[in-house]
Amino acid sequence: MNNKKVPEPVISRLFVYLRELIELTKMNIRTISSGELGVRTNLSDAQVRKDLGYFGQFGVSGSGYDTNELKVALEEILGKDKTWNVAVVGIGHLGGALLAYPGFKERGLNIVAAFDSSKRKIGKKIKGIIIQSIDEMPKTVTNKKISIGIISVPAKVAQEVADKLISSRVKHILNFAPIALNVPEKIKLKNVDLSRELETLSYFLANKK
Amino acid sequence: MNNKKVPEPVISRLFVYLRELIELTKMNIRTISSGELGVRTNLSDAQVRKDLGYFGQFGVSGSGYDTNELKVALEEILGKDKTWNVAVVGIGHLGGALLAYPGFKERGLNIVAAFDSSKRKIGKKIKGIIIQSIDEMPKTVTNKKISIGIISVPAKVAQEVADKLISSRVKHILNFAPIALNVPEKIKLKNVDLSRELETLSYFLANKK
DNA sequence: CAGAGTTTGTGCTATTTTTCACAAAGTATA
DNA sequence: TATACTTTGTGAAAAATAGCACAAACTCTG
Prior knowledge:
By secondary structure, the first copy, chain A, is an alpha/beta fold. Chain A is about 45% helix and about 20% strand. Chains A and B meet through α1, α5, β8, β9 and α9 of A and α1, α5, β8, β9 and α9 of B.
């Protein structure tokens, strides 16, 4: 095991390996080589080995990795034995889709609260969750032990919402608003910018050789 | 102007600069320095200058960039003068949210078709778009000149849908399914993996110092 | 118009991330 | 058990990306 800090892309790929390992164990495949795992995840064999190398030695020369053993090890490393409570702020089309997305719960991420500023929406129930006023955020975050906030509001109010989440003591933020948010160092911020991804594709269309 | 190939992260940031410039011109701010643009986009001044440097010299020493001029230049570079037709495959909660998202049209990305395999959904109309059977994809892609396909179906069928999109002659793909897709070299593939982003945050919760 | 202050553009350097490549350690076969 | 494979783990090399730092170009002020 190596003591250097682990690059974030490595963490991200570990989840990809884990997903594949879950499939493999379901299919009763007992061992897999870095090469084969690489093919299945569109990554190189060297990358697979290097990534795992940050956390220890899991493989056996000549035969590869025990799928179940590696799966358990990754679950441990990635904290999949734990669950986390999540709040969604902004229940428009996207926020509503996030509330309904089953993939989160399967992965130990429980959406336990929803906030919106629209009087029309407050009090309504979606997927078993009552939409609350943003004013109730500090209380709810504490009571429901919410550690991650998802921002799916328009760009104009995203910073304001981020500030409110942070002062309510949320630990990390996933931001869907297409704007650069300022958050304190200790808050981990991830951005998902849907239209930017699409726009990037359009650049390649416009500039193809 | 520099002839080296432009890194993809640069392209992506160019859209960020452009958004900011659009705001600035709306606010009638005529010039901006790389430093100030950096503050507004959470990037360094050097990065801003370096990124723009891939495409030419837009600034004026001592005063900075003319906001409108730079905006127009970036729109040109990024192909924002053009529009592109887009199809969404998989009209679940996420697909529905994408159909309803106004940000795409504003940016020249017109969703002109929607596909689903569910008999229950085919024929229904969402946001003015009739959901079609996946079998109609080749014909519709041709007729409606669709160049980008968005995949928002479950992981299990995502590869199959990708193959169908490609054989229907879609040029690029935006994939929301949490799985590694195999596509030919010439097809540009972008992945947005919602639960992976959230999971990455949960890793930092589980492993915080 | 001279001197002080800004800000760009960019060669160079640093850092981060990926890939290479191979000794060492295992497996399989006969 | 010996020989031929296979595959790992990991230093070292390469590639990609970001940041530094400064001359040159321009603005501003009195």
